[in-house]
Batch of 4 targets.
Target 1
Amino acid sequence: MTNLQFLTHEDLEQIRMEFGTPSFVYDENTLRNKAQALQAFPHAFGFFPRYAMKAAPTAAVLRIFNEAGLGIDASSIFEVERAVRSGFGTESISLSTQELADDFRYWAQDGVKINLCSLNQIQKFGSWKVGEPVGLRFNPGTGSGGTNRTNVGGPSSSFGIWKDDLEKARELCDQFDLQVERIHTHIGSGSDPEVWKNVAGMSLDLVRAFPSVHTLNLGGGFKVARMPDEVATDLQEIGESVKTIFEDFARDTGRELKLEVEPGTFLVAHACCLVSSIQDITDTGTDGYRFIKLDAGMTEVLRPSLYGAQHPIHIVPEPEQLSSRKTVEQVVVGHCCESGDLLTPAPGDPEELAPRKMIEGEVGDFCVIDSVGAYCSSMTTKNYNSFPEAAEVLKKKEGNLALIRKRQTFEQLIENEVVP
Ligand SMILES: *Cc1c(COP(=O)(O)O)cnc(C)c1O
């Protein structure tokens, strides 16, 4: 049997029978292990890890991380609400958002922390006179990400206050009597560890400009290795070097800064797979391709279509059929009427088909897409072609499978429609 990380063939059968395909399946043990590994991040003067919940915001996942002692990085006021409803205290949530909703003032009064991400946000929050200290998110001028689309620092990125606007930011904060206690940078997902460390150094220069700052949040972006040829960021290694620059900073300035990081991908990427079924096969001849068509696609896993992201894919026939199957090159596509609904693009090029050598798939086989915990279930073309949203299941630490999000019903899919 192929390497399915945490699922057995019996699990697959049970998932098909009980929950249907496609279903996302999360693994509680992996979630807990990753949270523990993050808690061990080296630090000099205190540390608070947050979970960037936009990666996978389902309540059952949030609860596990709450129990593991993580805080929350929210990207919208709706995520704040979701975190609170799943049990997080407001004081453990921080918001860094592109859209600062007017209602946020009430959450701020309730203790949710804000990282103001633009000059306009400073002005807006300042005018509310909430009286709580704030954080400022800066774009340090350098970014790094696996692709241009996941790079969120540098001049072509809109995230954060541009570094050269530091003086303007400071003046605005003075004008509104805002006390700045946190500086925040997040430069991208899947970022280069060397760039990440450099930005940590540059962020300390921002901290120098704000004497009241006691916490530096360096965002997330730790690279994980989904495919065998990818290299994961070593948290201990970058943590040690960040610890050293914090210690140097303390020697220079007498200021002992607390560290925060807020990964999404690192915590959940490997903790989930999508269990789907092969529902059709097409072959376009000797100059063409053998296409494996799933009962899932960009409606569940959009990253390949968006970034040319690579995910391990396992075709799983009945165990007794395994010996009679060859290994052949195949292209795996989704169920949407959209040629971009492709699960095996060339790395970094969503437009190019890249056939993969896999067990020859047949209709009815399972097809398991691995390492889909981050930005898959939460970032889809939901309901395109009117396919209902997939179910989510948790493999609990005791080994049993529990439903954590029901499959969307057809009624739910059309419930907001009004015919005038
Ligand atoms: C998305 C995001 C993160 C998490 O990024 P990962 O690459 O998933 O670790 C952290 N902080 C902020 C502000 C983000 O927008």
Note: Residues 235-253 form the longest helix (19 residues).
Target 2
Amino acid sequence: MKYYDKIIFELSRPGRKGYELPADTYGNDALSHLPADLMRKGQPELPEVSELDVVRHYTNLSTKNFGVDTGFYPLGSCTMKYNPKINEEVAALPQFTQIHPLQDVKSAQGALELYYNLQKALANIAGLYEFTLNPYAGAHGELTGLMIMRQYHISNGDTKRTKIIVPDSAHGTNPASAMVAGLEVVEVKSKPNGSIDVEDLKPLLDDTVAGIMMTNPNTLGMFETEIMEIAKLVHEAGGLLYYDGANLNPLLGKVRPGDMGFDIMHINLHKTFSTPHGGGGPGSGPVGVTEKLARFLPNPRVKKLDDGTFIIETGEDSLGSISTFLGNFGVMMRAYAYILTLGKENIRNVGPLATLNANYIKESLKDDYLLPIEGVCKHEFVFDGLKDKSTGVTTLNVAKRLLDYGFHAPTIYFPLLFHESMMIEPTETESLETLDEFIEVMHKVAREARETPDLVKDAPVTTIVRKLDETTAAKNPILTYSSLMGK
Ligand SMILES: *Cc1c(COP(=O)(O)O)cnc(C)c1O
């Protein structure tokens, strides 16, 4: 069966066409170089449509989704900030997009310089010695960082250090990456305010501990005030500290993970450094380390020689290669443009504004939504559902109702510490007007939950698809275009 046998081109009409052939870049006899058995025997079966059909089809499809360019996206833990369009222009420069990873490095010096400079800028921001930009995402960075941790202990002959301490509030990727890296996960409890319980940590620290994974501010958006004490305890026990940098946004240019005592960290360029994300990529999860760990960083690496030229190098003690070539270069270009357009002076404003926005929403809504942890949060915070739960309206219902009002839902049912978690992160890029509109709608939904609960339970009603049966959607997803999808 041909792959298109099942596809119905419902817009196709015989003979209709709309195309423009690209200039013949390879010369007229290009086809004569192709082996005859690879040549197509008949016409391809393609939809026959006019240019206008194509324009309308794709333009209509593009409006069926929700993105940060279409509306407010307070998805906690994801830092869905606006991605400035200048980053896109930079990333599209043909001088970079036309480079082939296998071409002579002498002819790709600009790209290597960008890699090197970005790596240095991140090291400055993080307070660490050196970064690799090769990993493709935060979780991939975690895996890379934990492999470095293991390699470090093994190189010291310390082979029984196989345990990694992870807080019970951690993002799911933390224990998952630890398992893939061959480490055994030991959970440390949080105190009621969400921070690590140092007394619970102490008895876990022995000579089988490879290290601890933490994020600060933690998953509840609260700063771990005892971090210096925790770092001291873990280091005294011979372990290393891994920083999950997904929550770096509120600290940017103000506080450095390296100064807090962390030895290894990843940064999600697609969160903190404003490159687009969602839909599975492409992302980038650079990993930074202290000087003593730099020799374990993955291959290949970009080095600067004394004469100012750049080379690609493979280190002998490296844990090996974790990506094809140097990683997702387009994402690096966007992040580099973002850092340069902000500059040292303005990067310091990111954290305070993100923090102010989160606290503004939190304080404005806590009369209607249950705030389990009082006090000043950093870039995000968690509600435990509606305060008044008497009508049975859940966090899921509220999230779906927000879609009807044109807002993306917050992160829901994470962290697992509360039954009705609703995690809100506005980021620094939203205006006061947008925050006020969101607050007004959240109050309105709470009022609906009291007065007309069925309306909220039936939501969403204005979206392309209504509430999905999540089990069926996960087990039997329909991922192809369907003309039955609403207009
Ligand atoms: C997003 C996130 C991750 C994972 O990052 P990906 O780039 O999605 O792989 C890890 N930890 C936290 C706290 C996160 O928010």
Note: The chain has a mean pLDDT of 92.
Target 3
Amino acid sequence: MTTQIRPQPGIMDIALYEGGQAHVAGVSDAIKLSSNENPFGCSDKAKEAFQRAGHKLHRYPNTDHAGLRQAIGDVHGLDPDRIICGVGSDEIIHFLCQAYAGPRDEVVFTEHGFLMYRISTMAAGATPVSVPERERTTDVDAILAACTKKTRLVFIANPNNPTGTMIGLAELERLAKGLPKQAILVIDGAYAEYVEGYDGGAELATRLPNVFMTRTFSKIYGLGGLRIGWGYGPREIIDVLNRIRGPFNMSTPQLEVGEAAVRDQDWVKRCRDDNTRLRAWLAEALAEKGVPSDTSTANFILARFASEEEAAACDTYLKSEGLIVRRVAGYNLPNCLRITVGDEPSCRRVAHLIGLFKAGAA
Ligand SMILES: *Cc1c(COP(=O)(O)O)cnc(C)c1O
């Protein structure tokens, strides 16, 4: 029987997202530095909350997420009524595209921007517009030049993944104020907690009517497996997103663990301090071995090799030694490898192996 069942136009053009590899054939205890996960895991308070939530799994979760929104609001000094929670910040990105972009609309992001922006844009039937960066850094003027009367959303990860670079709040404000009237600036703060004293764009999203911020529990909170994210911005935008959000999008464990995790800021500070120290050590160790990187503000380093062939060969060698990093050719960075800052032994091991590789001893 032949059918005429077809997905919406554009859906089959979406390239499947590939997560960081987790296993190497033949290696049982590979070190995974491919997904920017917290090597120390999540806080004990979060683990205890997860245990407790196990006793209530027969009950539906609440639909208003009031407890988690209140906790986030308390910790960040934000109005809980302007917060929305989602299944990872991926879901918030998805809501934004579904709600604000459709056929004939354009969604702007940068050439080395996070892949989910393109996927969610195309899922909504809208047109992705990729803008050049300057030396692997967001270029506000290039973005403003790319905006048209069709632009509905502009996504900037700050710090950006996979480059690790970021721009200042004054530049973000200049971008927001220069956008066409119908466009929203989305500041993705997935790595904001790694930057001491940076609010992720919260103050801008409080003050300006066209700025929205997304955040996640997947990175510094060490909860990537649980899928918790949130968004914050103008009340009007929150109201729109809540209309397309499934009432039970967040499970009880997500809500309760998120609440416990966000209230444990001591854990966040310890993880930030460790990351800052180990990141500096790793960047310097790699530079000494002839592998430069831009100054990273996140929990990974974008290591630059002489060529695409050299990056690929180094990746293959590291894998053969049980160490998984991330190839970023799909981010238009074929000569680079993205390396998550792991614990101290992992940092030493990756630096040692790359040193052997560069010395031709591998
Ligand atoms: C990891 C990451 C996220 C987080 O996604 P979740 O769905 O919250 O796990 C968001 N944006 C960027 C740029 C990221 O690197």
Note: The longest strand covers residues 151-157.
Target 4
Amino acid sequence: MLKYKNNLLFIDDVSVFDTAVKVGTPFYLYGKKKLLENYKVLDGAFCKVNRIICYAVKANENPQILKILAEKGCGADIVSVGELKLALACGVNSQKIVFAGVGKKDDEIKEAIKSDILMFNVESIPELFRIDKIAKSLGKIAGISFRINPDIDAKTHPHITTGLSHNKFGLCFDEAFEGYLLAKELKNIKIVGLHLHIGSQITDKGSFELASKKVSGYIKKLSDAKIKLRYIDMGGGLGIRYKDEKIITPAEYAQAIMSNLPENHTIILEPGRFIIGAAGILVTKIIYIKKTSKKNFLIVDAGMNDLVRPEMYGAYHDIIPIALRKGEKYNWDIVGPICESSDIFAKDRPMPKVSEGDYLAILCAGAYGYSMSSNYNMRPRPAEVLVEGKKWKVIRKRENLSF
Ligand SMILES: *Cc1c(COP(=O)(O)O)cnc(C)c1O
């Protein structure tokens, strides 16, 4: 997506420098071409099976991004009524919406049932009963899957509730089995599938293989108990390259998942990061160059309120200048203006020559960037801009905090 032309950074045919001058910094810049490419490659990897790609809205909930995906037939993995309303407003087919989360509230469940979503990914038994009760009051039938937590190894951790009490997400296989038996008897519940989501930024193919193996054995067990599933939702989690990780290709991912699963099901995938992560950058400007006896700082105008991943997860992001200058490389701590010592994007990072006022691009910032941003320090959230071929447009204005 990114390349230098005459020492200036471009996304497709748009100069990042020109955009920065016009939009002001900081702002997120996304490439539509790359976004669609990611979606197509992943969808294509599963072309041999019935499938629904449910984009994880929490990765990036910009309405334009969602609309682009919905137009291609993409579904949505949602975790709140806000995401539900947004997905519907952006044209996502309600029968391609799946709803996860350990703390779904009554009004959220109600709204989702009324909207006729495909299924709730149920994370506890009380939630199952709550959904049934609300569905009954609406005279509706709600589709459900249980969210399995396959990290609980039945051999070393027998299905005891103390194990679960420390574990927020999903149910272990045995508890979910009990759940399915209960669900079978509930009049306003329809069992439609099974769900799991084993984590995020996964780069180990073996984890997906193991998950699908466990699931395939489990489906057989359910089938023996006369519980038939139509959908197998393998969640999201496919990792991307932030630094030098060896990542799983979509083809390898599909192979890892599909080689173990029976074929007569519809596969659901919930990619977030893979779709939008590498399709976005955060553009920021160097406000000051501060050299102390111990450290050399580049103080930039983006902060941890704009992109919290480095602060929150110790995440690595490549950072590159938007205009390449001649001169020696130098090591910098690249920091934001927030009043927290942890507001650091990079430590001792070698950078080509830079000067005050230069723009920098923080790469692979499309996922969990804007969506996790905040107003901490009373800072307005940044603008979001989309590149489409030779053109670009602001798809969310910079926030205006006024009184
Ligand atoms: C966050 C999340 C996803 C998306 O994960 P990625 O790593 O971004 O692909 C999918 N499903 C569920 C249930 C999630 O919580």
Note: Residues 205-224 form the longest helix (20 residues).
